[in-house]
Automatic annotation (TrEMBL):
This is protein-tyrosine-phosphatase. Its EC number is 3.1.3.48. It comes from Pedobacter alpinus. Keywords: Hydrolase, Protein phosphatase. Belongs to the low molecular weight phosphotyrosine protein phosphatase family. SMART domains: LMWPc. Residues 1-142 form the Phosphotyrosine protein phosphatase I domain. It comes from the Bacteria. Signal peptide: none annotated. InterPro entries: LMW_PTPase, Ptyr_pPase, Ptyr_pPase_sf, Tyr_phospatase_low_mol_wt. The keyword Hydrolase applies. GO terms for molecular function: protein tyrosine phosphatase activity. The keyword Hydrolase applies.
Length: 145
C-alpha cells in the first residue's frame, strides 16, 4: 500500500500526517509506504515547519528529516490513495487528474471537513496535530480491513 498525504505547502499539515501514519504502520509491522507533497511549490526542499517538528517530537515522532516536494501527475499512478488536507487541495489535485481512476484515488483526509491551515496561527498546531493523529489511526484501521 502506498499513501500520499497532500496539503498546500508540504511543511505544516501533510508532514505531520506523513510522520504519524508512518509511525502507526511501523507499529503495526506493515510494509506500507507513506509520503507527502504540496500542491504549491513555495517550499520545495525545505524541512517541515519548526512548529510541526516540535509537536511531532512531543508525540515521539521525528519528522525533521522530511523534505518538501510538489505534487506531480506521476503521483496518481505511484500511489494507491492520495489524502488531501482541505477542499482547495482537493480541487487543485483533481484538476490535474487525467481520468476517473486517478480522480477516485483522491480523498479528503477528514471525511467531510478541512484540516485547518495552521501556518499563520501558532495556536492551531496542537488541535491540528490531534485531528491528524486521530484520523490516521481511523484510516489505518479502515484500510487494513
Ligand atoms: P501547509 O501550510 O499547507 O499545511 O504546509 C502552509 C505552509 C505554507 C504556506 C501556506 C500553508 N505558505 O503560504 O507559504
Amino acid at each position: 500500500m502506498k499513501i500520499l498525504m497532500v496539503c498546500l505547502g508540504n511543511i505544516c499539515r501533510s508532514p505531520l500526517a506523513h510522520g504519524v501514519m508512518e509511525h502507526l504502520v511501523k507499529q503495526e509491522g506493515l510494509n506500507w509506504e507513506i509520503e507527502s507533497a504540496g500542491t504549491g511549490g513555495y517550499h520545495i526542499g525545505a524541512k517541515p515547519d519548526h512548529r510541526s517538528i516540535k509537536i511531532a517530537k512531543l508525540n515521539g515522532i521525528d519528522i525533521s528529516g522530511q523534505q518538501a516536494r510538489k505534487f506531480n501527475v506521476n503521483d496518481f499512478d505511484a500511489f494507491d490513495y492520495i489524502f488531501v488536507m482541505d477542499k482547495q487541495n482537493y480541487k487543485d489535485v483533481i484538476a490535474l487528474a487525467k481520468n476517473e481512476e486517478q480522480k477516485n484515488k483522491v480523498k479528503l483526509f477528514l471525511d467531510d471537513d478541512n484540516v485547518p491551515d495552521p501556518y499563520y496561527d501558532d495556536e492551531l498546531f496542537e488541535p491540528v496535530s490531534q485531528m491528524i493523529t486521530t484520523q490516521c489511526a481511523k484510516l489505518l484501521k479502515q484500510l487494513k480491513s
